Amino acid sequence: MKYEKIKEFTQTTKASKSKVYRFYKKNLELWSDTKLKNNKRLFPVDHARYFDSEVMFDENKILRQENQSNRLLY
């Protein structure tokens, strides 16, 4: 997995530093994926998708369709 420092990660996600830390405070399971190296917090590049609203909207839409189809099965 590729990691970035907070400065590069905020540029990649176009989110502020405080927004990034607030997000990880709410999602502790994702916080465990970050790592500490030389007293610097490194963030996985894969997590940038959680800050893109279009990607999250598409994933949410797919999950809703799956839930709807599962309800119809029962």
Task: Please render the helix and strand layout as text.
Elements: E1 3-5, H1 6-13, H2 17-26, H3 28-31, E2 35-37, E3 40-44, H4 53-73
Antiparallel strand pairs: 1-3, 2-3
Characterise the protein shown here.
- The chain has 74 residues and is α+β, with helices and mostly antiparallel strands.
- 58% of the residues lie in helices and 15% in strands.
- It contains 4 helices and 3 strands.
- It has helices at residues 6-13, 17-26, 28-31, 53-73, and strands spanning 3-5, 35-37, 40-44.
- A 3-stranded antiparallel β-sheet has the order 1-3-2.
- The mean pLDDT is 89.
Taken as a percent bin, the fraction of beta residues is: 5-15%
The major pleated sheet works out as: 3 strands, antiparallel
What is the tally of helical segments? 4
Rounded to the nearest angstrom, the distance between the terminal CA atoms is: 39 Å
Topology, number of strands: 3
Task: List segments where confidence is low: pLDDT < 50 over at least 5 consecutive residues.
Answer: none
Tell me roughly what share of residues is in helical segments: 55-70%
What is the gyration radius calculated from CA atoms?
15 Å
Structural class: alpha+beta
Shape: elongated
Mean pLDDT: 89
Question: Which H/E pattern describes the elements?
Answer: EHHHEEH
How is the largest sheet built, in terms of strand order?
1-3-2
